[in-house]
Amino acid sequence: MGGIGQAFVQEPEQRPKPSTIEVDGIPVIDMSVSGTGGIEKLASEIGNACRKWGFFQVINHGVPLELRQRVEKVAKAFFDLPIEEKRKAKRDDLNFTGYHDEEHTKNVRDWKEVFDMLIEDPTFLPASPDPDDEEIRTYSNKWPENPPEFRETCQEYCREVEKLAFKLLELISLSLGLPANRLSDFFKHQTGMLRLNYYPPCPSPELALGVGRHRDGGALTVLAQDDVGGLQIRRQSDGEWIPIKPIPNAYIINIADALQVWSNDLYVSAEHRVVVNSEQERFSIPFFFFPSHYVKVKPLEELVNEQNPAMYKEYSWGKYYINRTGSNYKKLEAENLQIDHFKTPESE
Ligand SMILES: O=C(O)CCC(=O)C(=O)O
Ligand SMILES: [Fe+2]
C-alpha cells in the first residue's frame, strides 16, 4: 500500500484529490479595535464568519509572537526525540494526557503524532460515561523530561491563548445579541486541552490523511498552524474541501459543537481534515476550549422561541466528552457520539 500500513488507508471517497480550485478562503479578521463602534463592528464580522463558515483567522490577537515561536521550538524538539524517549510520556488507560501516535478518526489511523496537555491542572471529569455514575475523577498532566523548558513554555503559552479564547467567547456572545459575559460562566472549571500535532512526511499522501474529517467536539478551537499548509474545511454551500492558507502569526478560530448547540444552529461547527505531503513535516497547535464538566449544553433560551424551536436536547458536557474520549483513540465498530444524536424532532 505505497509504503504505509493498511490502518492508514482511507476509503476511496475520503482520499484527498489534488486540488486545482483557487478560492477565496475564510475571512481574516483584525482584532485590534479603535474608535466608537469598534467592538460592535468586530463582533458583527465574527458573527458573519461563524454563520457562513464556522471558521475564520484572526490577526492582532494579542498572543506574543515570541512565545508562540518558543512553543513551536519545544514542540519540534520533543517530536525530534527518539520514539522510546517520547513513549516515556505516553498516554495510558488511566490518563489520556501525554504522547500518542495511534489516534484514529472515523476508524482510520491518522498520519500524525500528538502530545496533549490539560489547560487546568488538575482537571475534573466524570469517571465514566454512564449517566447514573456520579463519580468525578481528577486528571493531571504528564510531562516529558526533554526538552527541559517544555513544561514551563507550554504552561505560559496556555495562559496567553486562554485569554484570547475568553475574548473570542465575549465577542461571539455579543455577535449573538447577548451580553458579553453570557457564555463565560460555562468555563469556570474548563476542561480544555492544548495539543501539539506533528505530521511527518508521508510516502503516500494520496491514500492517507493527517486527521480524517471531523468536527471539534468542544466550544471553540484556537489553532496555530505553521507555513506548510494542509488544513482543509468543508464548505457549507457545496461540500467542497477548501484549503486554509497559512498566514504567518495568525490564529485559525473555529466554532465547535457546543457553540453550534448554544447558538441553536445559527453558527456552524464545520467539518475539517488535514492532508499530508511527501516532502515536508508539519506542526500545528490547537487549543481546545471546553466547558466545565457539569455544564448542561442546550440551545440558549434567548435564542429559542416559537418560530425557532430548540434544535437539540440538553446533554452533559462531561459525559459527552468522556464518551468521545473513550472511543476516539481506538478503532471502533460504530461511529462515536456526535451532537446529531441530540437533535430534537422539531429540527427534522
Ligand atoms: O492540524 C491542523 O491544522 C488541525 C488539526 C485538527 O483539526 C485537530 O487536531 O482537531
Ligand atoms: Fe479539528
From TrEMBL:
Residues 1-20 are annotated as: Disordered. It comes from the Eukaryota. The keyword Cell cycle does not apply. Keywords: Iron, Metal-binding, Oxidoreductase. GO terms for molecular function: metal ion binding; oxidoreductase activity. Pfam families: 2OG-FeII_Oxy, DIOX_N. InterPro entries: DIOX_N, IPNS-like_FE2OG_OXY, IPNS-like_sf, Iron_ascorbate_oxido_reductase, Oxoglu/Fe-dep_dioxygenase_dom. Belongs to the iron/ascorbate-dependent oxidoreductase family. This is Fe2OG dioxygenase domain-containing protein. It comes from Gossypium schwendimanii. The lineage of its organism: Eukaryota, Viridiplantae, Streptophyta, Embryophyta, Tracheophyta.
